[in-house]
């Protein structure tokens, strides 16, 4: 079976370093997953909030990257992000997933709602963010 994911979406050094996997991408929506790593714990022994924020940001940005075939994926930058943590994540827990869904988009900006959940579906964090499509995207 061939991988339908555009190659550029596999090219992020950050995603490769953290082991983030793209599970689903369709117009205005993305779903990714990450397996917590004990090396990403904070001094309290739980998964660092920066990792959770990264998952929210990645899911949101990837949701905005979708483009119909044969167009190349769009590129964007995060302008603003608000995050709410609702539960702690053990650094040795199972996979966690993040989703990003565009709630509104214009010519240069798009607005995304994102969530991180564990394998049982419990909400770990949620956020809202604003992104700007880069020129030429």
Walk me through the structure.
The protein has helices spanning about 15-20, 50-65; strands at about 20-25, 30-35, 75-85, 95-105, 110-120, 125-135. A hairpin with a 4-residue loop joins strand 5 (about 110-120) and strand 6 (about 125-135). Helix content is about 15%, strand content about 40%. The two termini are about 30 Å apart.
What is the structure about, briefly put?
With about 140 residues, this protein is of the alpha+beta class.
CATH class: Alpha Beta
Total number of helices: 2
- How does the overall form come out from the CA principal axes? globular
Radius of gyration: 15 Å
Secondary-structure arrangement, i.e. CATH architecture: Roll
Query: Largest beta sheet, briefly?
Result: 6 strands, antiparallel
How many individual β-strands? 6
CATH topology: Thiol Ester Dehydrase, Chain A
- Write down the overall mean pLDDT: 90
SS content category: alpha+beta
Helix content: 10-25%
Which range does the strand content fall in?
Answer: 35-45%
Distance between the termini: 29 Å
- Within CATH, the superfamily carries the name Hotdog Thioesterase
Main sheet: strand order: 1-2-4-5-6-3
Which residues form runs of ≥5 with pLDDT under 50? none
Our count of domains comes out at 1
Order of helices and strands: HEEHEEEE
Helix-strand layout with pairing:
Elements: H1 13-18, E1 21-26, E2 29-34, H2 49-63, E3 76-85, E4 96-105, E5 109-118, E6 123-133
